[in-house]
């Protein structure tokens, strides 16, 4: 009954927002108005059929209250798949459990877990001296806690293992939380706006931690948010037994209710979406025919609402928001910019380490091996952890209560997803440019020089793109914090008066223009100017390596984006003919092995990064390096940076000529202006060189390296709502790609 009531109200909101989102999508398609062009390439075809992580850990089985060893595999879609053992995985037997981790929290302490369990059922706390609900056989637990559905208990033997698995689990949660595909330009905004409008109708403003997972999971959380307190009041006092038993029973009841809610929600949302899709062709035809009239009607409505709302909104902004914008921005900028700087550092280190090893170990064969590993760098949870953990510093103390921000986790995860995407874009751009150059190179000398030049070229593009991405993230985060606060403040004086504006909308256009949405746009405009100004001032002051809005790299690489449209590069397949043929039996045997992006037993790269690896024009030939002696690490970044500057400045013109993606059209001229001083003016520098970049810190060698992907098919996590499924007999195991998701970097989502 509760699910039907909530879904009924939500589907009404969704139908309204669907028309608005469709109009906005068509209008954007016609008018364009895109932002700055990205300099880095974006991977069109996602990396698939690789295993993110695999290894053994202990799982607590609630049915028999025993700990059992399990072999856990994390496929490219970030589901947690647990097998009886490694042999069961290699034989392609059905898994024991498949977990979708959307909405879960990763706990590394039993005390943390017990505190959450005790608070979930008020008044039921075990007495001191009594055994708790969970005992862990080691000091290194890993617990997946969810406010509504069942919990999962794991443990490992060492602290190092715990850190690795925690990074892997957090990556799974981060990925699965981002389950609403951003590729959908109509359904996704319609859904998120409908959720927001529904919650605001219940006087719930501000960020919501449980807006995570795919659409059905989010709606199930929406229902459970209202249903669970009622259940707790009704059922809680009737639970019998000791405190631990009552807690365990309550968790099981909550999980069972969540399963039922999920099934009902899934069916009702599917029906609502199918109805909107059925009406879409007619709506889109109306929009395209009457676009000008709809826009005119909307602007007329907005002008009337603006005259009524704007004076009150501006006073509210001036008194309650404006004084705090710079504080919020500074709190966001510091950890975010440190995280993006760390992404740059990790990328620089990995490529430079690879270049050094090619110098010492051999040419194309080693390049193919390292490039297969480098292509997965953005999806390496342990290597990316140093970037992600910078966001843990984000704190909005004092501001959280003022602006009703329940948690900073939504901002942390969004920034971390941007970091992963920027890393993957940098890697993809690097491998695309390098792949283009390989046919022109003569020997190992040219290869190493080209790698270094391409690295510098990609870093410049990364600096520009990361500045653009961060500024957009800061603006969105500031709006996400301030707009709900303003709407809540203005609601008593404005919301009741909005109904009178409904008569200004033509009936034919009522599906595409909503008074509530137009009112929110007016409120947004009242604060947007201050937010834009704050971000602009931070860029002008060069805070955190942000660039001014006026610094735009137009067509600095006119043909680069054409390269990204080509067939995806498969380093192993493409250059397999140049390498020694592998026996068919060995290939089959290797395919059955677990090949993870991370290997617990793999060591670091055999050679450290040395300044002598950065081959400069006129430098000694690589043969002069003694392969038996491990090159020394430089004392600091200065050696590497000076070498890079000497190469990029001294041979910059030749490098640009060599790395041009296509022939320059006749009549076109390419100007190269050498900088006249260490701090050249913007007008004296070529377009690409106008964007400065942070000095890369000294890379630390010895980090783990991802392994090449395997062609082995991965089990898709179950589409059951509970997060676990007792698998059917062999041959009856089915996999389903969840609705509304794609096999792309951010949109991949496993269902329950």
TrEMBL record:
Entry-linked CDD domains: Niban-like
Coiled-coil ranges per UniProt: none
Residue span, PH domain: 50-174
InterPro entries per the UniProt record, alphabetical: Niban-like, Niban_1/2/3_dom, PH-like_dom_sf, PH_domain
Signal peptide (residue range): none
Listed PANTHER family: NIBAN FAMILY MEMBER (PTHR14392), PROTEIN NIBAN 2 (PTHR14392:SF2)
Protein name as annotated: NIBL1 protein
Organism from which the protein derives: Herpetotheres cachinnans
């Amino acid at each position: 009954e509760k699910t039907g009531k909530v879904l009924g109200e939500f589907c009404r909101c969704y139908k309204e927002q669907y028309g608005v989102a469709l109009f906005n999508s068509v209008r954007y398609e016609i008018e364009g108005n895109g932002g700055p062009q990205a300099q880095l390439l974006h991977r069109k075809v996602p990396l698939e059929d690789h295993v993110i992580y695999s290894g053994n850990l202990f799982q607590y089985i609630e049915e028999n209250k025993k700990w059992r060893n399990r072999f856990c595999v994390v496929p490219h879609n970030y589901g947690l798949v647990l097998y009886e053992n490694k042999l069961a995985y290699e034989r392609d037997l059905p898994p024991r459990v498949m977990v979708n981790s959307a909405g879960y929290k990763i706990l590394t302490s039993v005390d943390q877990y017990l505190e959450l369990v005790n608070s979930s059922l008020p008044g039921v706390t075990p007495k001191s001296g009594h055994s708790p609900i969970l005992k862990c056989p080691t000091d290194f637990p890993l617990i997946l806690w969810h406010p509504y559905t069942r919990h999962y208990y794991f443990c490992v033997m060492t602290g190092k293992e715990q850190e690795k698995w925690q990074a892997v689990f957090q990556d799974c949660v981060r990925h699965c939380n981002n389950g609403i595909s951003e590729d959908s330009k109509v359904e996704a905004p319609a859904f998120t706006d409908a959720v927001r409008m529904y919650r605001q109708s219940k006087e719930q403003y501000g960020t919501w931690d449980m807006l995570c997972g795919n659409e059905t999971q989010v709606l199930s959380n929406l229902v459970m948010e209202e249903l669970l307190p009622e259940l707790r009041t009704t059922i809680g006092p009737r639970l019998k037994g000791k405190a631990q038993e009552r807690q365990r029973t309550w968790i099981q009841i909550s999980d069972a209710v969540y399963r039922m809610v999920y099934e009902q929600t899934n069916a009702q949302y599917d029906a609502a979406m199918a109805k909107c899709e059925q009406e879409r062709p007619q709506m889109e035809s109306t929009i395209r025919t009457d676009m000008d009239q709809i826009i005119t009607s909307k602007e007329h409505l907005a002008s009337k609402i603006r005259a009524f709302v704007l004076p009150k909104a501006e006073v509210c902004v001036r008194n309650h928001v404006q004084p705090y914008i710079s504080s919020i921005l500074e709190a966001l900028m510091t950890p975010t910019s440190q995280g993006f700087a760390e992404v740059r550092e990790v990328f620089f280190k990995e490529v430079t380490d690879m270049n050094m090893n090619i110098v010492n170990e051999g040419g194309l064969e080693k390049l193919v091996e390292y490039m297969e590993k480098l292509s997965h760098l953005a999806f390496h949870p342990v290597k990316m952890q140093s970037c992600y953990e910078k966001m843990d510093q984000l704190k909005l103390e004092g501001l959280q209560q003022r602006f009703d921000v329940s948690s900073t986790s939504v901002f942390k995860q969004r920034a971390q997803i941007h970091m992963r995407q920027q890393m993957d874009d940098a890697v993809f751009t690097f491998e695309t440019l390098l792949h283009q150059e390989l046919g022109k190179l003569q020997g190992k000398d040219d290869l190493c020089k080209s790698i270094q030049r391409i690295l510098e070229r990609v870093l410049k593009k990364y600096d520009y793109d990361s500045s653009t991405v961060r500024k957009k993230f800061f603006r969105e985060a500031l709006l996400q914090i301030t707009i709900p606060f303003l709407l809540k403040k203005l609601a008593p004086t404005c919301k009741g008066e909005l109904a009178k504006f409904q008569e200004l909308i033509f009936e034919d256009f009522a599906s595409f223009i909503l008074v509530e949405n137009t009112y929110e746009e007016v409120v947004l405009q009242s604060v947007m100017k201050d937010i834009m100004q704050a971000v602009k001032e931070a860029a002008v002051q060069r805070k955190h390596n942000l660039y001014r809005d006026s610094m735009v790299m137009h067509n600095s690489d006119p043909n680069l984006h054409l390269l990204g449209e080509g067939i995806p590069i498969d380093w192993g397949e493409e250059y397999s003919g140049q390498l020694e043929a592998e026996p068919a039996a060995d290939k089959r045997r290797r395919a059955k092995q677990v090949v993870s992006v991370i290997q617990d037993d793999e060591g670091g790269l055999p050679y450290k990064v040395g300044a002598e690896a950065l081959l400069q024009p006129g430098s000694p030939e690589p043969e002069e390096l003694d392969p038996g002696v491990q090159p020394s690490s430089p004392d600091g970044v200065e050696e590497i940076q000076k070498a890079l500057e000497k190469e990029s400045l001294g041979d910059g013109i030749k490098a640009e000529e060599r790395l041009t993606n296509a022939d320059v059209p006749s009549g076109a001229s390419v100007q190269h202006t050498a900088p006249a001083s260490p701090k050249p003016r913007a007008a004296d520098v070529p377009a690409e060189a106008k964007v400065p970049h942070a000095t890369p810190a000294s890379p630390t060698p010895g980090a783990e390296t991802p392994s090449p992907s395997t062609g082995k098919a991965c089990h898709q996590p179950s589409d059951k709502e509970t997060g676990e499924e007792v698998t059917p007999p062999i041959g009856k195991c089915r996999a389903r790609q969840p609705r509304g998701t794609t096999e792309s970097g951010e949109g991949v989502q496993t269902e329950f």
